[in-house]
Amino acid sequence: MSAAPRDPAGTAAAPSREVAPAVSIVVPCRNERAHVAAFLESLVAQEPVPGGVEILVADGLSDDGTAELLAEHARRRPELRVIPNAGRIVSTGLNAAVRAARGRYIVRMDVHTRYAPDYVRRCVETIEATGADNVGGPARTEAAGAWQRAIAAAYASPFAVGGARFHFADYEGEVDTVTYGCWERATLERLGLFDEGLVRNQDDELNLRLRRAGGRVWQSPAIRSWYRPRVSLGRLFRQYYQYGFWKVAVIRKHRLPASPRHLVPVAFVSTMAVLGAAALFWALARVLFCLECAAYLGFLVLGSLAIARRRGWGLLPLLPPTLAAFHVSYGLGFLHGLAAAERGGRAAQDLTR
Questions:
Q1: pTM attached to this predicted model
Q2: Average pLDDT in the 264-278 region?
């Protein structure tokens, strides 16, 4: 592919509407007035990609001024298009943007993440060099306040997330899933795009479908982005409760979990609940309940010490409740999802809003 022409400022000129760009950046967005302008401006800093890029932002009927900001930016930047997302959730927004995309490659981005200037270029280079069906970078984080730094530290630890390799910044190779992703548009169309029945976990489910169809997901540390985690335990708890809830829908769809680690939090929460209830009537259950509590507290202390040793001892008092929030919220959300599935109904999408 020939290099895209440059404008006087040195950035890649936007491709004309008659010539399809090489890359389509797709971004789901809803009520992000505080973040969307900075995100769009950050895309200006992206290094040029041979063939040029277009940016498609799927706005989920924002009512906080986001839509007006997007329209203003679109008037000034011909490479930016705003796509309506009547479904208002991530999966419907991504699908609307992919259907409108014209590029050979689809690069998925998120408003709450900062990207290295070579992010898009590295995605294209990696997918072409590896021949993988989806490529992306590890889940790096950046944080400011004390709780956000504790959450970021736990997020990168196996004590919080098990053996998920996409949380490990130096790992390169095949993985179950990656942060965001880059595909050939034909690959997404062949898979049937994202599952619009999922409010959460739509990226993981797509990658599960891809791998079970014989495809490969590849992680490269050269693809760099920095995710801003939640700023409080309450918000973290809500986030992972939702992940646990919607993981049930993924497992029901595919009949098997993508990884055994997805079942560990619900097994822990379930046994604690059963033993706690039985302890009211049965002496042996009280002993077992106390033993499980002691073992879990020991796990929290061990995990917190290991994380604090690498990330700073000042975080130590915050790490035990942070780790517990990851585990308990996911397990409770999973149990809620099982109960909703047993009733034969689907949870209201208001769970995630």
A1: 0.80
A2: 89
